[in-house]
Amino acid sequence: MRKRFHAVSVPAPAWVAGAIIHSFIALLLLAGMAISACAEETCNACHEEQAKKIAKSAHNSTACGTCHVRHNEYPHPAKIAKPVCTECHTQQGADYTLSVHGQAAKKGGAAPDCSLCHGAAHELLNTKVANFRTSVIDTCAMCHTDVVDQYRKSVHGKALAAGITQAPLCTDCHGEHRILSHSDQESSVAPGHIRDTCGNCHGNVTLASKFGLPADRLMSFDASFHGLAGKAGNETVANCASCHGVHNILPSKDPLASTNPKNLAKTCGKCHAGAGQRFAITPVHLAEGEGESIPVKFVREFYLMVIPLTIGLMLLHNGGDFTRKLFRYRFAKRATDRIAVPKALREVRMLPFERVQHAVLVVSFIALVWTGFALKYPDQWWARPLLFWEGRNPFREIAHRVAACVFIGISVTHFLSLIVSRKLRKHWMVMLPKAGDIKEAAAHLSYNVGLRKVRPKLSAHGYVEKAEYWAVIWGAIVMAVSGIMLWANNLMLRFLPKTWLDIATSVHFYEAVLATLAIIVWHFYSVIFDPDVYPLDTAWLTGVSVKEHEQEHE
């Protein structure tokens, strides 16, 4: 059966009332427009010249009465205050008040006002057209003649003169109404913001592609020593303007450019005294795989091969060990029972002084990893807590260097303790590598991956502990040497080629990645996740461990 739909009927009086109301509103709008038009025509009758000007200005759609209040009366009342731009443009007015121009005007000094930059009220220029943008240079030149002369000769000024309207000019870097002094931390040209200001263009992939600009300048700077120090909050470290200039930026091929190879010693010498006097300064913007020297490329490719290989073998070894033990303890029909060993028979794994060294080493290592990677990746969530303490002082950098001093100090203490203490030296002798360690490691790896059925015997101080101990020794030396080179960068640049610092930077980063992964995959498994010791091997607290005894007494 079809359903019948009935239209909802509206009572005639209500419909008529609604129509009358809508008609009345329409009549009011038309009347308002007519009155406004009549008012404009009335104004134009006397002010014909102003009417012609305003018809071509940005205020062509603004009624006269918006600015000229009470002028609808004739004759016009006397002593009516002139209109103020900020009555409509409140935000622009507030920004101008805070700017260097507004502050100068407040003190009674010479400063530009709205009309100087935008034109007279009846001839107001449209800011969205290309002509207004290119005229900004001439406007600023009224007061800043020397600066504009430098700009016109720069790579940016020449690009603008060649018709490239997207070339940066005064307002792109300094702002429009809220122009602040470069010494003001909130200024877009303050040292802390220079990188972002320049990055608006040099970090823009579209602009780089359109004008053939190098697309890696921002990324390569961030990865450099200067970029990392800048991320740490260091406001005195070199930024884009420190090397390339401010208004007089020239292409590096220009003999007058501060970044020309012949001028690099002078440019870098402003911060690094003596840099470039013995050896030529190599490129600063080093993109990974592009423009890097052969030694740096070798270091990078070496670690990119060693890190996956080393960590991969560790995962294979420990994954197989975990699977074997999990099956033996949980799923075998007759699981091997652990045999409790009397405390008197347990071997002392770590002497009291060694446990103190271990505790200090752990704290300093964790601090180094956290602060070090926070310097490299400050935008990650785990790095943000460190930013809470950072203001004018580079907290991450300071904390990283303090932790480095502690780490180096405890490493040297360990070395000296072996020389001074015969007891410690005798206890340490078990960590010396033996020829059988390689055979034992190969046998256990074969067993863990299923190539061998019988589980080989594990020495009380076997390849697991020895590999980790000597890896820490090697890593400590590499990280200390490369870290000191980066810390003493001025001294290094005075006596060594910059390539050495590039090598130190690469080594320091990749060695940190390798060390961190090794601790997580190898050490944490050995002392935490190994089913023989889970949930924790307490040797670092009590000095003794039952792991090896359990295996020897099975």
Overall geometric form:
elongated
DSSP, total strands: 0
Per CATH, the architecture of the domain at 294-552 is: Up-down Bundle
The total count of helices amounts to: 27
- Which blocks of ≥5 consecutive residues have pLDDT under 50? 1-10, 549-554
- Which strand-content bin applies to the residues? under 5%
Q: What is the third-level CATH name, the topology of the domain at 294-552?
A: Fumarate Reductase Cytochrome B subunit
The helix content is 55-70%
CATH superfamily heading of the domain at 294-552 = Transmembrane di-heme cytochromes, Chain C
Write a structural description.
The chain is an all-alpha fold and 554 residues long. Among the domains are: 185-285, no CATH class; 294-552, Up-down Bundle (Fumarate Reductase Cytochrome B subunit). Helix content is 60%, strand content 0%. It contains 27 helices and no strands. It has helices spanning 12-46, 48-55, 64-67, 90-98, 100-106, 114-118, 130-141, 145-153, 155-161, 170-174, 194-202, 205-211, 217-223, 225-231, 240-244, 264-269, 294-331, 352-376, 384-387, 395-420, 422-428, 435-448, 463-487, 489-495, 498-529, 539-542, 547-552. α20 (395-420) packs across α21 and α23 crosses α24 (489-495). The longest helix has 38 residues, at 294-331. The N and C termini lie far apart (87 Å). The model is unreliable at 1-10 and 549-554 (pLDDT under 50).
